[in-house]
Amino acid sequence: MSIQSDVESLSIQALENYAKIHNLSENDAVDLFYKYQIFEKILLQYEMLHRKRKIIRRIVLP
Predict the structure, then answer these.
(1) Is the pLDDT of residue 60 over 90?
(2) Residue 11 has pLDDT above 80, yes or no
(3) Is the pLDDT of residue 16 over 90?
(4) Contact, 14 vs 21, CB < 8 A?
(5) Other C-beta atoms lying within 10 Å of the C-beta of residue 7
(6) Is the Cβ–Cβ distance between 29 and 22 less than 8 Å?
(7) Which residues contact 30 (CB under 8 A, 6 or more apart)?
(8) What is the mean pLDDT of residues 1-14?
(9) Which pLDDT score is estimated for 61?
(10) Residues 32 and 38: beta-carbon distance below 8 Å
(11) pLDDT of the residue at 36
(12) CA quadruple 15, 16, 22, 23: dihedral sign
């Protein structure tokens, strides 16, 4: 899978779970995710973890 498809899947799962846990419609959850830039934050965190994993692999497996 590509980073984009991984992040899209993760974002959808996060959105659906958030809506369910907080008894919101998915449309209301989407509005909140956009308002607080959650989609962007998920992408940035995923990219950061992906980069760190590559660096650790280079250090551990020369």
Answers:
(1) no
(2) yes
(3) yes
(4) no
(5) 19
(6) yes
(7) 15
(8) 87
(9) 67
(10) yes
(11) 97
(12) positive
Encode pLDDT of 24-56 as tens digits.
999 999 999 999 999 999 999 998 888 877 777
Q: What is the secondary structure of the chain as a DSSP string?
A: --HHHHHHHHHHHHHHHHHHHTT--HHHHHHHHHHTTHHHHHHHHHHHHHHHHHHHHHHH--
Rounded to a whole number, what is the distance in angstroms from the first to the last CA of the chain?
25
Query: How far is the C-alpha of 62 from the C-alpha of 46, rounded, in Å?
Result: 24
C-alpha triplet 5, 43, 28: angle, nearest 5°: 90
Residue 11, phi-psi category: left (phi > 0), alpha (psi -120 to 50), beta (remainder): alpha
